[in-house]
Amino acid sequence: MFLKSLKSSIRNLVKNKVFSAIGIVGFAAGFSVCLIIGMYVYSEFTVDDSPKNKDRIFRVVDAKNRNSSLDYELKEKFENNYPGIEMDCPVEISSVSYPIISISNQKTVYVEGLISTTNDFFEVFSIHPIKQISDKPFKDINSAVITETGAKLLFGDEDPLGKSISVYSDESIISAIIPDFKSSSSIQGHILRNSENKKFRMSNVGEIHDDKIRTYSTTNHYLLLKNNQNLEDTEHRLNIYTSGYEMSVDSIFLQPLKSIYFDTSVSDSNRHGSTGLVRILSLIGFMIMLLSVINYINYIISSQFKKHKEIGIKKTIGAKLSNLLSYYTTDILLWVVISFLISISIVAVTLPWFNSLFQVNLQLKELMDVRFIAIGLIIVLFIVLTSLFPYIIILSKFRVLNLLTGNLGKAGKNSAGSILTIFQLTISIVLISGLFIVQKQISYIKFRDLGFKDSELLYINIQYNKNGYESLKNEFLKNPSITQATLSSGVPGLIGSRTTNPKWENTYYKMVVDDQFISTMGMELKKGRNFTPSDSSKRACIVNEAAVAAMAVDSVDLKTMGINEIVGVVKNFNFESLHQNVQPVIMSFGTGRSMSLRLSTENLPNVMEYINKVWKDFYPNEPMQYKFYDTWFDSMYKKEEQVSHASMIFSIIAIIITCLGLLGKIIQVSLTRTKEIGIRKVNGAKVSEILSMLNKDFVLWVVIAFIVATPVAWYTMNKWLENFAYKTSLSWWIFALAGLLALGIALLTVSWQSWRAATRNPVEALRYE
After folding, report:
1. Which of 43, 263, 508, 705 could crosslink 425 through cysteines, CB 3.0-4.6 Å?
2. 395: which residues sit within 8 A by CB, 6+ positions away?
3. DSSP 8-state class, residue 200
4. Dihedral of CA 304/308/310/313: which sign?
C-alpha cells in the first residue's frame, strides 16, 4: 500500500513541476531558517547548564540598586551563620583587560575576564583541572589557575605549572590548568587568582555612614544551598542580616544561576544574552515556517478543488477515507523529506556565516540531539495535520455527485486560500515594518548627541604601576595632529568608581579629571566654570545635570562627599549605552591614568604611527591598549546590530516565500479562469482590463493585510523599544512604506503571470468548447 501511494505521489510531483518546485523551495527555506534559529535558541537557553548542582546555585543581589557586587567579608558571615548554605563562592570578574606578564620570558598579553575567586569555585561550578600540582587547584593564597587558551597565550608549548605570572606588580604561581570555559557559560576568563589573598581582589567601594567613609572589597557571592532548602526562608534570614550589615543595602534577593545570563538589569561583568533577540528570532522562525506551510496549504486547497473529479471517481470505485488519506499523507511526507534534505545542505553552507554574525559555535551534529529530533517530529506532525485539514473538509463536506459534477458551490471559489494569502501578506508587512524600525533605532543611537564628541577621540589605558603620565601626554602633544590631551581616572564608557550614601536616592559615579578634560572631550559647560590650576589646593568638583537633579544640592551637606564646592555643571553625557538613563557623576580635580587624545584626521595613519613609537619609547615591554570612542560606543549595540542583520536576511527569505505563494496563487487563478478570460477576449476585452480583473483581488488582499499588520507591528516594535532609555519614534510613514512595498512586491510577482494569461490566444481556451 505504501509503495503504491509513493509511486502515485512521485507521479503527481513530476506532473505538477511548477507547483512542486514552489512548495519544495518554500519548505526548504522555512526548514533551513527554523533549524538555524532552533539551534541558536537552544544554545542560548542551555547557558549555565553544565554545573552538576545548577539548580542549587544562587547569586546574592542588592534588590534596590540591582547590583551583585557586595562586601567580600559576607562570605564568612554567610557560611558561619546560615546552616542552609553549603558553600559561599566569591567570584569577581574584571570588566576591563588586564596585562598578564609571563615572568619567564617577560611576555605581556592583555586578558579580558580576569577572575578572583577561591577553591570553592571549582567544586560549585563542576570544573575539573586537567593538571595540578597539589590536591586543590589553588595551592596557596599566592596561586593562580590558568585555562588551556591562557597557557597557550602566555607560554606557548611550555608547561606553565609552577611558573610565575604577574598582574601589575602582584606575582602569583600557576598551580593548575583547567579546560576553557564553555561557550555556554555566563562566566568567562582565562586567569583565575586566589581571592583569599587581599591583593588579588580587584574592586573597592567607599560607603559613607555617619559622616565616615568605610572602604571594602566587593565580589559576587554565589551560594550553593543544601538540598531541600526553602528559598524564601533563606532569603528572609539573609535580609535580616545584610540590611543591618551594609548601610547601602536595603534588601537582597537570591538570583538563580540559570536566570543570570538573560538578566541584564543586574550590574555585573558576566556574559549576557538578549531575550529580545531570542524572542525576535524565534518569532521570525515561526512566521517563516508558517509561511511555508501556508504556501503548501494554498497549493493543496487549489489543486484538490481542481481534482474534484479524480477524488469523486476514487470514491465511486470504492476508495475508503483511509485509502484517500494514505495517498494524500504520502504526498505531504514526500514533499517534507525532499525539503528537509535540501534544507540540511543549506544549513551546512550558511552555518559559518551565522556563527560569525552571532559569535557562537553552532555545529551541524547538534541536530542529532534527541530534543532536536523530537521537535522536528512535532513540526512534521503539525505540517501533516494542518495540511490534512482542508483535504478532510473536501472529503466530508461534499457528496460523490457534487465532486463528479463540479458543483461545489461557494467552497469552490477557494475563500480559505484567499484568507491564507492575506495572512502571508500580513506577516510580510509586519516583518518589513519591524526591519525599518530596527534600522531607524540603530541609526538613532549611533548618531545621537552623547553629550561629548566621540569622533576623532582616542582612549589609551595606562596601567597603574607605570610612571610618567604627564611626560607621556606632553610628548604626544608635540605632534601638531594631536590637538588636545587629558588624563583622568575613568572615562565615558568606563567609570568604575562609585559612592553610596543613605541620604541619597542614587548611587553616584566618581571621576578624577584634569583641567583639560572638558575641552578635550568636547563637553558643554552649562553653569559655572572649568577647573583651574589653583583648584589643586581646594576640594572642588564639577557635576553633571543628573547629579544636580538627584542631589538636591541645597539640602545635602557636600562635606560628607569630601567636597567643599561645586564650581561647575556640565551637560549630561552618556557614559553607558543608551539602554540606560544618564546617571549622576561627580568629577573632582586631579589626574589619572586614562588618557584621551583629540586627533586630527588629515593624516591619521602617521599620527597612529607616532603614538605607537612614543608609547614604545616609554613602555617598551608592554603593548599599547587603545580604543576609538566612536567605535567603542558603537560596539555597545552589538546585539541590536545582530537583530538588524538577522532581521534583514530572514525578512528577505520571508518575502521570497510570500512571493512564491503569490506566484502559485496567480497561476491557480489564471488556470481556473482560463475559459472566462477567453470569453472576455472574444467579446472585446482589452489586455489592461484582463490584467485589472486578475490583479484587483491581490490589491484588495494587500490593503486588508496592511490594516491587520499595522497595529500588530506597532505593538511588537513598541515593546522592543522599551529596552532603550532613549528611543526613536514610531513614525506613521514606516508602516505606510511597508504597505506600499508589500503592494509593489505583490504586483510585481503576479503581473508577469497575469500578462501571460491576458495575452494568450483565446482559441486555446475555447477550441474544445
Report:
1. 705
2. 311, 315, 321, 324
3. G
4. positive
Q: How confident is the model at residue 750 (pLDDT cuts 50, 70, 90)?
A: confident
Give the separation between CA 194 and CA 136, rounded to whole angstroms. 12
End-to-end CA distance of the chain: 39
| 212 Cβ neighbours under 8 A, 6+ residues apart | none
Residue 726: what are its φ and ψ, rounded to 5°?
-120, 120
Whole-angstrom distance, CA of residue 151 vs CA of residue 172: 14
Q: What is the pLDDT of residues 53-107, one digit of tens each?
A: 999 999 999 887 788 888 888 888 888 778 888 899 999 988 766 777 777 666 7
pLDDT at 556: 47
Closest by Cα among 420, 433, 419 to 715 = 433
Close Cβ partners of 379 (under 8 Å, ≥ 6 residues apart): 34, 289
Higher per-residue pLDDT: 269 or 319:
269
**Of 578, 581, 688, 685, nearest to 633 (Cα)?**
578
Residues 6 or more apart whose Cβ sits within 8 Å of residue 633: 450, 454, 492, 493, 574, 577
Q: Give the DSSP letter string of 289-313.
A: HHHHHHHHHHHHHHHHHHTHHHHHH
The model carries a pTM of 0.74
Q: Which amino acid is at 607?
A: V
Alpha-helix residue ranges (DSSP H) falling in 398-414: 400-405
CA nearest neighbour of 469 among 484, 488, 493: 488
Helices (H) and strands (E) in the chain, counts: 23, 24
Question: In Å, what is the CA distance from 619 to each residue of 153, 198, 237, 612, 615?
Answer: 21, 28, 52, 10, 6
How far apart are the C-alpha atoms of 569 and 627, rounded to whole Å? Answer: 27
What's the grid cell of residue 448? 545621537
C-alpha Rg value of the chain to the nearest Å: 34
Burial of 618 (0-12, 13-18, 19+ CB in 10 A): middle
Rounded distance, CA 438 to CA 99, Å? 38
d(CA 392, CA 321): 9
* 702, three cell numbers: 494587500
pLDDT in tens, 642-658: 777 777 888 888 888 88
Amino acid identity, position 713: A
